[in-house]
Design a protein that fits this description.
The structure is a homohexamer. With about 300 residues, chain A is α/β, with parallel strands linked by helices. Chain A has two domains: about 40-195, serine acetyltransferase, domain 1; about 205-304, UDP N-Acetylglucosamine Acyltransferase, domain 1, CATH 2.160.10. Chain A contains ten helices and 14 strands. At the B-D interface, helix 1 of B face helix 1 of D.
Chain lengths: ~300, ~300, ~300, ~300, ~300, ~300
């Protein structure tokens, strides 16, 4: 009969025993319990893909024509901004909720209160976009004025990595100030991967900020940077040491990074460490290791 | 009636007032006029996506089998090269036009003259591909000879980031010499994001050039590099200072980067600044800060 | 007649002569013979796209819920691990074969022996995944304990670039020990491009390893790193010089990188060169250039 | 200054007035209120894309190896079924909820009760998959036995449109019996578009059912079909007339289609209309118009 | 040397001679001149992909929420309509130009006059969208009232193939009346492939038109259909014969299809041929062949 | 400790028991053995996606400029044909092998003999493409001459469904004559789904063949159609009855469909059944049921 024929020709490609027992081993609770994320029911995970779209939407609102639909004009501007804001709100509300739920414990908050909160935070973020755009405009002006190779504002917005990194920072910083967990850090790591510039969302950065080339720049969580500051590639604003608690673990969240006052320039590959202050107008040469205060107006250079 | 029923069940999800007024604010001309690109009618914007395809097509012509269709053979080579050149010409003509139009003012050039010019430049670029391929072959040989970890030419072409960065540089440099605006810079920034190596398209670089590891390398707009030069990660060929014009703005385009003569080696994280010359066969150790001429054959090392 | 009409309206857009002759030139054997890869019949090329999926599958087995399907739970774990292991074996066998064939000469091995070998190696790699997962767990713990800005294990797995770089290294290292050519290097270069961290698959690295920020880190082929070692951005473990053979070419594969013992910390942008040893518990400050042994427990800092 | 220059070169591409006023007109509430769907807050719309994946997942569970991952084997079967069932449950729960919410009025049901209901229905559907698979197996056997052109069971599962249409019908019918609104109809329309076979999910169809070629077949909502029935392309089982209510509108949902008993054959393009019965073993020739009962065993043919 | 080694291991996979000579044969002008389209320089080909997006955009403007972004609400309606109209105009202008250029002869029109014309036609089409939406609303009402299985307007818009076919027809018909060549026919063939309903864009169709099931319906170029007409699957409104010109070729474009007056119902698979008239309120039974006038109010049924 | 905290917050979303036991049931061998395809090791399954690309490549070789790259010109024709033939050969060889392996029994053929055979068949198919192109050219001419609505050859190639269906038929028929199993049937079903026209690859069809509208056309496995034949939608060339073997099963593969001689026209929805002959120049009216020979030159019409 047909069935017998069909059965006889089965010549299955067997999975070998070693793979089989490895699957068993990898599926044991003890083995995966610390490296496996468990979402609670109906609580979404943050999505790298959606966060990429959020960054893209924000950029298209902040720099219309350069990002998003290139054909925008003053008369159609409102339509494009409207649609982008509408979608940004939807996606951001969802990712904020995902961020809140990432580490939340059962029973901590009711679902509906988290949803209401996420909606409010998304709105509050969007309300700040006009101010973020103004700040980014000052960063573009600073990059243009500071780089002899720059031909136009457009060139800077379109292809300078520093503008991408600073945009992500200003977005992530605004979300952090609205107490959104996890999401700001993911957004800043996206720029880190794209540009090699690692700015912690917790840092404070003034207007007219610019970073030339940028690969290897690190700006730590509690760094404070004034207005009109310029940095080159490889500059670190880092922590010198971490105070430990009585169990020998680092105390989380306390100030440990430098304060850079207005009008400072820091040349490539220099490292500024600890809770020191670099005073107004100071110029730090390249390849330096600074862990004490620098007075205003000082010119530091590598000894030879 | 049906219509009434339909009407009554409308329970629209309203956009809240704060979003609504933020959209208004973000759509005001004063707010976006400096951060919004305005293309002229029928003038395309440069497209990052198309430029990525242009780089990919160029690589598949320069290194057939490694990039593009892997199944190419000597007998089918002409078909593959023919199709790739045909498409490269089409896309490049379009992006060159987009680059020319990016900052052009109304009435500057007639559309048809820009199109004719873009067509000519695209052709002139393609005509140089055999020479670019020869130069890149020397770069592959240099990487193979200089790295004890390299097993074959193929490994270098297939996975060394320096070859990707130098390929983009040689492409971008050729386009810049044909007076294409903006596009060369975008192509070099693509390699910068992919590899952490930032080579300005305006730099001049000889044959047998190699960069090991590469992250953090910066080579400035007016740097001139001889033949058989090797660099390691984190090396900067930068500007020391920018001459200012009478308004206090940096003068654009003048020479401000080093000249590196033939057979020089520069170890990791060293910084060479200003219009100095590093002489034939010099060896610059790591982590150095050099802003004066280095004589031919000198061996520089960090003092301790 | 119809045909004539059709014929007459042909107004072909001609390919110009310069493009035509350039295609000829680019298709000449002498021009491409050294930059063109030739696969043997039925021997696949390694595929960057497939290798990306292999890395993604490995990550989803090692860190279930963070990578791959977010909705995995203990009860469904076995299904997800099973499907991912099944596909990983299939793809890996194929890429291992591609790696083996990349440089193999005709007649070197029969097809069926290469296929059998690739199958065995893929299985042997998968059998090691439980151990690789344990090692990566120690790396996560080290990152959590060492960074005051880290809020949870989850945050570290989800967005710290060092975990991505170390994961790729541990995968590539296991494949290299199974004598797979080329593929390990491509996998480590993927992490290099994504994170700016360049770890050669040949390096030996112990448990509880962590890299903060990471951009610009280079760890060479013969470096050996103990347990509980921490590094910051820009650190190089490099070669000091290459012994040459009698033809003046570097001797491939011999030891030329440092040995870092347990519990060492190396701050940002320091360079450790040559076959030296940094002893247990030593602390190397930032921006240093080290090419001699460092005793256990020493604290090295930049002189000023 | 820079700003003035930038301002002056704006030469915006204006949206013309006719488009502008048409947008206004199309955005007026009166114009769109009857053709615009309004979801309630947080109530998803059914998604054609997700429903396509649901059909694809169901097919890969019902016919493993033909649909979904081709490399499944008896030893890996459980893993593949497990992952597919897990994902099918997730997507189906979401689409069932979307279907329930599509026409629901505010306040009708609490969100959580709809979610719980959707979860239960999705589970109940999946529990029926083994029975659905058995029924589909009988349909495959019938197609094989009835078509001299069929070479194997595999050929039928792999490329006969009738199997695709009947699979979608059996899935949609099960969902309809679980009181899922809208979704079953969308699933059957997918098969209609793919195959030209339009089977309403409300129809009742026995085992060993087969349709040859199939384009143009229509089987109405209240049709009942016995076991071992065969149809050809263009056959309609339709309604003869619709009883109207006192307002002159058709009464929805009452029986109005034929009953086809076991072992009936209906040749191409015949139309069977109304609540008639075609008796066991009857053969209806092609191009016939039947609106009265056909006795068991009758042979009907077109008069000439 | 290295080069020699590389050379020796070349073992190219040769293209066989039969393929080689077939390529030659397929590339000869005589062989392809009648089956190859030649665009003039800078004249785009119509693009099926772009036309699909045009249909999708039109549907999202006509039925907001059902097609396109599901999250549209009255307050955000204007933004969504604005963006969609803006993009529709851009794409349509381009495709209209492509349609005009498809058969145009060199020198027929200047490029700039074709562009201006395409822009005007695209605008004129968009201006008609509010009227097209009103007409489609009547079609939805007719489908709802005529089908006892229909549960809501929403179900009809979302999944009835007739609404998709009629939407494409009303779009294609408007474009044809604006003298756009080729494009209307492609748009109606898209619906034909999707639904099995083939309505020529040249047909004239009144309000409240509905087709049940629809597979196999054909409505010819010069058919005229009144208001409130209903059809079932397989109905043809065709030509009886084609008057020939003196060369024996059919005369193109003259009236050759039926006129269907208001309130007519035509049951499944009936064929109405030639320039006849079916009078107001007539009912045509199924499977009939009609090639003479049918008086108003007549009830036609198949003889048995 | 950290681990305990992590452990405690696990609140896994459990898979419910009903799903769990259904997975078990669906994974039992008895349940899936007849509906699951088992490939032998290293024997690929036919891939619908690859077969779609094969059809697309064939169309771009047969109708250059209409399908595939629109920018082809006589001077670049050879490059495009060369690349397309090269890839077509590669994909076709692989799918032919998959077709041969689909039902093959273990040990039937060695792998290498199947590979060699597949390579030969793929080449033999490609060698026939010039002849297939000539035949399709006659079909285009016939469609143009027969349809008063057709404006140009280009319109017919670009958007007439009959050309797509006949192209797939001529491709599938050539493959069937080269004894390729399964693949031809999948290719003809692709056209069936796209156009509603179902032509069995085994049918024999002469030059200048055309089908108007086409939905619902069925042409059976052993039908033979002469030159210059025209059909309309819904025409069936079917089998009247199937001779049974002594077990009561239909005898596979024997002649059972009509022979249509040259110059015949068959109007819509007519059904021609059995091994009859319709003589040269006969005209079959619409909606007819023909199961006896029709003499040459006869005009058949529906009686009324």
């Amino acid at each position: 009969m047909v069935d017998i024929e069909v059965k006889n020709r089965h010549n299955y490609y067997p999975m070998n025993d070693k793979l089989f027992s490895t699957i068993q081993k990898l599926s044991e609770f003890e083995g995966f319990k610390d490296v496996c994320h468990q979402q609670m029911e109906n609580h979404p995970m943050p999505s790298i893909e959606v966060l990429k779209e959020i960054v893209q939407l924000s950029r298209s609102i902040l720099f219309p024509g350069y990002y998003g639909d290139a054909a925008v004009s003053p008369r159609t501007m409102m339509y494009h901004i409207g649609v982008n804001v509408d979608r940004l709100h939807l996606l951001l509300e969802q990712q904020i909720k995902a961020g809140i739920c990432f580490d939340c414990t059962p029973g901590m908050n009711s679902d509906s209160s988290i949803e209401k909160l996420s909606d409010q935070i998304a709105t509050q973020f969007i309300v700040q976009l006009p101010i973020i755009r103004q700040k980014l405009h000052t960063d573009v002006v600073a990059a243009y004025n500071g780089d002899p190779a720059a031909k136009s504002f457009g060139e800077i917005i379109f292809c300078y990595p520093s503008i991408r990194a600073i945009s992500n920072y200003r977005i992530a910083n605004a979300l952090l100030h609205l107490n959104v967990p996890l999401i700001p850090r993911i957004i800043s790591e996206m720029a880190h991967s794209e540009t090699g510039i690692d700015i912690h969302p917790g840092a404070t950065i003034g207007d007219y900020f610019t970073i030339d080339h940028g690969t290897g720049v690190v700006i730590g969580e509690t760094a404070r940077i004034g207005s009109n500051v310029k940095m080159y590639q490889g500059v670190t604003l880092g922590a010198k040491s971490f105070p430990l608690d009585k169990n020998g673990n680092p105390i989380k969240g306390i100030a440990r990074h430098p304060r850079i006052e207005d009008n400072v320039i820091i040349y490539s590959n220099s490292t500024i460490l600890g809770t020191i202050t670099v005073g107004n107008g100071a110029v730090i040469g390249g390849n330096l290791w600074i862990d004490t205060d620098v007075p205003a107006g000082a010119k530091m250079a590598q000894k030879r």
